[in-house]
Write a structure and sequence with these properties.
The complex is a heterodimer of chains A (262) and B (263).
Chain A: E1 11-19, E2 25-34, E3 39-43, H1 50-58, E4 65-70, E5 85-88, H2 100-110, H3 116-128, H4 144-156, E6 162-166, H5 174-191, E7 194-199, H6 202-208, E8 211-215, E9 222-227, H7 236-239, H8 242-261
Parallel strand pairs in A: 3-7, 3-8, 5-6, 6-7
Antiparallel strand pairs in A: 1-2, 1-4, 8-9
Chain B: H1 5-30, H2 40-85, H3 87-102, H4 105-115, H5 119-143, H6 148-156, H7 161-199, H8 208-217, H9 221-249, H10 255-262
Helix pairs in contact in B: 2-3, 2-5, 2-7, 2-9, 3-5, 4-5, 4-7, 5-7, 7-8, 7-9, 8-9
The chains are: A alpha/beta (262), B mainly alpha (263).
Chain lengths: 262, 263
C-alpha cells in the first residue's frame, strides 16, 4: 500500500515562467512542490504574480515556459480535474440571480448532477460554513463575510483534493477575517484537502499554514520556503503564543529580504 | 430624502390640474379659436363623444404595436444570441443592424408598403424595424458582460459552452434585455404610428394615426388632441407594464432592481 511519502506532490512547478502579451513578465522561474494535505501560503507583495501562479495551478492561465504537473488521486474522468480542484476568488463571485443553495450547487449542475443527493451535499456545505437558515437567501441580502462563506461552501461542495484561495479575506474587516480564518482551519482539519492560499498578510499566513513560500516582487520567484511548526490544532491561543510571534518575525524578515533582493 | 408615497401621486396630479386650468382660462380669456388650440374641456368632450370610435382605432394601432414588440423581443433576442455565439457573425452583421436603425422609417415605409401587400404585415415590419435595435444592442452587451471570474469558475468545473450560455450569459443578459425592451415598447408605438401616417387607411381597419390625420384635414382639432391624448396614455401604459414585468422578474436578480425595492 502506498504511503503518503510515496505519492507525488499534488502540485509540481519547475522553472515556470509567465509573460503576458503586453510584455510584462509576471513569473520568472518558479520552483515549487506542494505535498498532499499541506496548507501552503504564497506570501508576497501586491503584484508579485501570486494570483497568476494560482491561476496556472488551476489551469485557468497557460504558462509561457517551464513544467507544471497536477497529481490528483482517483481516476481521470472525461472532465479532467473538474470538481477535484476548488477555487475561491478575492471577490465572492456569486451569481446574483441564484439563491445561496443554488450557488453552492453550481459545480454539480455543471457536472450534470442535480438530483436529491447533490442537493443534500450542497445544503451540508452551506451548514458547514455556518450559513444554516440562509439557504434560500440571495447574495445581495448577505453581508460581505457571509458571501465569502458561500463562495467557500461552493469550493468545498465537491470535496476537492486541492483547494486554491486567492486572497479570499483581503476585502473583509478584521473581525470577520479572524472568524473566517478559524473556520477555514476547522474545515481543513476536518477534510484535509491540500490548500494553496495566496495572501499578503504575514500574520494570516503564519496562523493558517504549515508552510509558507515567500515570493519576490515582480517578476515573481520563490525567495524563501519556510516550515511553520506551530502546534495543531490552532486557535485563538496560538496568536498569543511566543512561537507564533517568533515565526511572524522570521517570516517578516524573509519577506523583507525578498523585497530588498528583487 | 424619501417622500410619502401619496405625495408622489398627489403632487404631480395637482400640478397637472393647475396647468390644465391655466390652459383653459388662457384660451377663454384670449378668445383663441378651437381650431387653433382647443380648450381641455373641448378635448374632454370630444374624448367622450368620439371615444368609442377612437378606442376602436386605438385597438388597431395597439395590435400592430404589440405584435411588433413581440417580434422585436423574440427576433432581437435571437439575433443577440447568435452574435454572442460567433464574434465573426457579430462583426459582419452589426453594421447592417445600425444602418437599419439610423435609416428614417418615414423614408423607407412607402417602399415596405409597396412590397408587402398585406397592410397589417407592412405596418408590423415598419414598427419592428424601429423597435428591434435597442433589444439587439442591449442584449448583445449583456451576453458579453458575464463576470470574468464566474467564467473562469465555469471553465474550472468543465462547463460546456451551452452551459456557460444558459447558466451564466443568458441570466447576466436578462436585465440588459429588459432595459432594451422598455425602450423598444415606446419605439414600437412610434413606428406603428409613423407607418400608419405613410400608409393612410388600409382598408376597413383604421389606426389611431390615420384618425389624427383625418381630424387635421377636417379641422376637428379637439378630436385630433383627443386621439393624441390616447396615444400618449398608451405609450405610458406600455412603459409601465414593461417596467412592472421586468421588476417582478428581476426582483432578486440585479443590483438595480434590488436597490429600487429597498427604497
Amino acid at each position: 500500500m502506498p504511503t503518503r511519502q510515496d505519492l507525488p506532490p499534488v502540485v509540481e512547478l519547475r522553472g515556470v515562467e509567465k509573460r503576458f502579451a503586453s510584455g510584462l513578465t509576471a513569473l520568472a522561474g518558479v520552483d515549487l512542490a506542494v505535498e498532499r494535505g499541506e496548507f501552503l501560503s504564497l506570501l508576497g507583495p501586491s503584484g508579485c504574480g501570486k494570483s497568476t501562479l494560482l491561476r496556472i495551478v488551476a489551469g485557468l492561465t497557460p504558462l509561457s515556459a517551464g513544467h507544471f504537473r497536477l497529481s490528483l488521486g482517483g481516476q481521470n474522468g472525461r472532465r479532467g480535474t473538474a470538481g477535484r480542484v476548488g477555487f475561491v476568488f478575492q471577490d465572492p463571485t456569486l451569481m446574483p440571480w441564484s439563491t445561496v443553495a443554488n450557488n453552492v450547487l453550481l459545480p454539480f449542475r455543471i457536472a450534470g448532477r442535480s438530483g436529491e443527493a447533490a442537493r443534500e451535499l450542497a445544503l451540508a456545505a452551506v451548514r458547514a460554513v455556518g450559513l444554516a437558515g440562509f439557504e434560500d437567501a440571495y447574495p445581495h441580502q448577505l453581508s460581505g463575510g457571509m458571501r465569502m462563506r458561500v463562495s467557500i461552501a461552493r469550493a468545498l461542495v465537491t470535496d476537492p483534493e486541492l483547494l486554491l484561495l486567492d486572497e479570499p479575506f483581503a476585502a473583509l474587516d478584521e473581525i470577520t477575517r479572524l472568524a473566517l480564518n478559524d473556520d477555514l482551519l476547522r474545515l481543513w482539519e476536518e477534510r484535509r484537502p491540500t490548500i494553496v492560499f495566496v495572501t499578503h498578510s504575514v500574520f494570516e499566513s503564519v496562523y493558517l499554514s504549515t508552510r509558507i513560500a515567500v515570493m519576490t516582487a515582480r517578476p515573481g520567484r520563490i525567495a524563501a520556503d519556510l516550515a511553520v511548526d506551530l502546534a495543531q490544532p490552532r486557535g485563538p491561543a496560538t496568536r498569543s503564543s511566543r512561537e507564533y510571534a517568533a515565526t511572524c518575525e522570521r517570516v517578516s524578515a524573509a519577506l523583507g529580504a525578498a523585497m530588498a533582493g528583487a | 430624502m424619501s417622500a410619502q408615497p401619496w405625495l408622489r401621486i398627489v403632487a404631480p396630479a395637482a400640478v397637472g390640474i393647475f396647468l390644465l386650468a391655466l390652459w383653459e382660462a388662457a384660451i377663454r380669456l384670449a378668445g383663441v379659436p378651437q381650431y387653433i388650440l382647443p380648450t381641455p374641456s373641448a378635448i374632454a368632450a370630444s374624448l367622450w363623444t368620439d371615444g368609442p370610435s377612437l378606442l376602436g382605432s386605438l385597438l388597431v394601432t395597439l395590435r400592430i404595436t404589440l405584435a411588433a414588440l413581440a417580434a422585436a423581443a423574440l427576433l432581437g433576442g435571437m439575433i443577440a444570441l447568435v452574435f454572442s455565439l460567433s464574434r465573426v457573425i457579430e462583426i459582419s452583421l452589426f453594421p447592417y443592424a445600425v444602418i437599419l436603425q439610423v435609416t428614417p422609417i418615414v423614408a423607407i415605409a412607402p417602399l415596405i408598403i409597396i412590397w408587402i401587400h398585406v397592410p397589417f404585415l407592412a405596418l408590423l415590419v415598419c414598427a419592428w424595424i424601429v423597435a428591434f435595435f435597442p433589444i439587439v444592442s442591449n442584449t448583445t452587451v449583456g451576453l458579453n458582460s458575464a463576470d470574468r471570474n464566474l467564467l473562469a469558475l465555469f471553465r474550472l468545473y468543465g462547463a460546456t459552452s451551452w452551459q456557460v450560455l444558459w447558466l451564466l450569459r443568458v441570466p447576466t443578459a436578462l436585465p440588459y434585455f429588459f432595459a432594451g425592451l422598455r425602450i423598444s415598447g415606446g419605439l414600437a408605438l412610434i413606428g406603428a404610428v409613423v407607418a400608419e401616417f405613410v400608409a393612410g387607411t388600409g382598408g376597413a381597419e383604421t389606426g389611431l394615426a390615420y384618425r389624427i390625420l383625418e381630424a387635421g384635414y377636417r379641422l376637428a382639432i379637439p378630436r385630433l388632441f383627443a386621439a393624441l391624448f390616447l396615444l400618449s396614455v398608451t405609450g405610458i401604459a406600455i412603459y409601465l407594464v414593461l417596467d412592472f414585468i421586468s421588476r417582478r422578474l428581476l426582483r432578486n436578480w440585479h443590483e438595480s432592481a434590488a436597490a429600487m425595492e429597498e427604497e
